[in-house]
Amino acid sequence: MTPPRRDGRGSGRARGQSQGGGRSRAGGPSQAGGPGPSQAGGPSRAGGPSQAGGPGPSQAGSPSRAGGRDQAAGRAQRPARTDAGAGRIDVPDEGHDTLIDVPGGVRLQKVLAAAGVGSRRHCEEMIGEGRVEVDGEIVRRYGARVDPQLQIIRVDGRRIPGREDLVYLGLNKPVGVLTTMSDSRGRPTIADFLGDSAERLFHVGRLDYDTEGLMLLMNDGELAHRLAHPSYGVLKTYLADVAGPLPRDLGRQLVTGIELADGVATADRFRVVERAGSRALVEITLHEGRKHIVRRMLAEAGHPVSRLVRTQVGPVSLGPLRPGTTRRLTIREIGELYAAVGL
Which of 39, 63, 93, 324 has the most CB atoms less than 10 A away? Predict the structure, then answer.
């Protein structure tokens, strides 16, 4: 019987089988039929594994031309991509997300840069590294379009302010200043230190007329409300100059609870910073928000306060800020404030 004519394609297949360790052309399945996968009956080029690396057999039953079984196995888990009409549909893989672009939205890296996260180039790098989330989903696309006023954006797990008009300030309130934006009797108020932005800022909690130190001000109403509400338990730390000498169990008394006219008040932490003759400097941390609470607790314990300074609210510290001056909170501080109240 005359053997079938061997053209260039047939010779290539025969060489592929013999070099790859497969059965010879005479003993293996023929082109016309046979028990093995044929060119007509095997997976098609359009729907099945590609010539360059599908997990199944190649056209002639031998390893693929683009690199053999090792390359094929390495890419076997990557989802296939198909064409549908004029546009290509990509099946999501580890480099894709399911976030739907907001029509008319702002590019994600632009939102991050406007919020002060970094330069637009740096923000693109952070997106590529998988450090940015939108509505709880990691987004790696530089061109993703979002609505910063409606969507929650996080960087390294911390929420960032999406709107450019949001303002977050820390003020070192001096002694003799009222925690209000106006006073009918003409006394100094915190508005005197805020300039034109005073009308649209909320102050988080209050400081007494004779108490100085850190106050937070912002036009983020939801965050300001939660920070001030006692149910969220945001800690506040004070330095108090008190009358001494101090008993050894003063800290235990304050942490256990001091009975006041309006109920028991407890400190979360207490430590003595310095002792100097008949005076002492102590640090007290608590989440209580009742009026004059620190002064009343220490007076009830027998150590009235002569000077009181608030040094910290949640994760934000007073630091070297001079009395009567303000500073903008950092992106990190804002993110930690959001986290402290579950936003």
Answer: 63
